Amino acid sequence: MAKVEYISPTFALHKFNGVVSERKIIYQVLKMVDSLLIFINDKDNMQLSSMFMALPNRYDNLPVGTRLFGDFMEEETSKGIALRITKKLNKTVFVSCNIETDRTMLPLIEKRIYEEIKERPEVF
Questions:
Q1: Most buried by CB count within 10 Å: which residue of 59, 63, 91, 103?
Q2: How many CA atoms lie within 13 A of 73 on its CB side?
Q3: What's the gap between Cα 78 and its chain centre?
């Protein structure tokens, strides 16, 4: 008779919040083996309207990336975040940023992610 062996899960979920321009921003990070999935929303019900993927490039120090699905206009927000975090952490990063942003909000949204990376590196 076969024996069932239980193993520890390799996925870990981390949730944190931030306030940008008086709006509550909700971040969820799903840590996987050698990759991250980051959801950014401003509502309690998490949406998934677009996703961008960036991965390290073995031939250059700049990561490469592509839009997996979603609106072209939403791509720019997720794209920038994914590329910069991939470069910093040297791992594949999927980003779904589902909020309407302007040029002043985006750096603050991303800054909150970097603060969390510094405070809790084990969840990234």
A1: 63
A2: 4
A3: 8
